[in-house]
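Recall that a protein's primary structure is simply its ordered list of amino acids. Everything else, from secondary elements to tertiary packing, is in principle encoded there. The following example makes that idea concrete.
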Amino acid sequence: MKMEFERVRDGSGGMVGCERGFGTVGSEDGSLRLGKCDGAVAALRRFGGDGVVSGSEDGLVRLWDVRREVEVGSVEAHDGPVTDVRVCEFERLVYSSGDDGFVKVWDVRTGRCVREFHAHNDPCSQIALLGNDKFASAGVDGAVWVWSTASGERIAGCQVDYAWPVWCIKAFDARHVISGAHDGVIRVLDAQSGRMSVLRGHAGTVWELETVSDKAIASASADGTIRIWNVGTMEELRVLRGHSASVEALSYIGNGRLLSGSFDRSVRLWNVDTGEPTCQSMDGHRGYVRCVAPYSDYVLSGSNDATLRIWNKIGTLVATLKTSHPIEAVVTLKGTIVSGESNGIIRCWRPPLA
């Protein structure tokens, strides 16, 4: 079925805001309300210099122009919640995954679905792009697959175990796909040969993966640890200990530094080469930390306590941005923070920082 971005024509054929009753609204918290989805925001990704793509619980994928503070368009992408979105800038494509087990590929220029894959028998938890012509999908059905966007064919992968959902997936390079599962095992799939290798060490679910160099990845687990692995040698390099509860957010911010957020309500900044914190623990959230990101010369954390907090890199709190509902996702671009909440509100923030 072809699905088009809903749009309002401005007379010249260009796309402007959707007819959804939303607008840019000044609010008491100092943010700009960019728009509202009819369900929790599951994912936010940058698109070009000024754009953001969102996926939400209402099954819609939306494209936003942050500079103009408008919704460019939306598609009814999935029968049920959207679980992830990814952007292929080169091809101007957006990939979406859903609770319906499908992965769909959208042409941003036309708003049409150019390819769809019935990737999993249960919800598809995450997707990862391998260059411009392949992607990988992870599912609650315990499977990891690699697909050709051009042919629509499944070209590698395996059913790991129906009893162990795969929650996260990362393209390490154009050939290797890394996944983390409920059983605490990290699996490395060679998409060219089809060979699957395993990394063992975690004692709990692996929730997040992050590339930290051209040779290594970091994994975050329910066991409260972060582990650094050499993908080439399949060795565990070091264990980062400091969190006292499940770690579910990671962001590599460059220069050998890794940012983490935990159910223990703290944020930490690590030196991945030594495994030691680079500063004091960033404490202050009253709920678990859902997402972390770099922001200019600062670091940013979003929590289910309905706040975004900005910290300097010695661990001092600089600003607290209050919202109405728990923060589910955050992305930054050109001095702007874009956040998505559990009630579907998407906000823009431009805090004045020294």
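The two ends are 51 Å apart (CA to CA). The CA atoms of residues 8 and 19 lie 7 Å apart.
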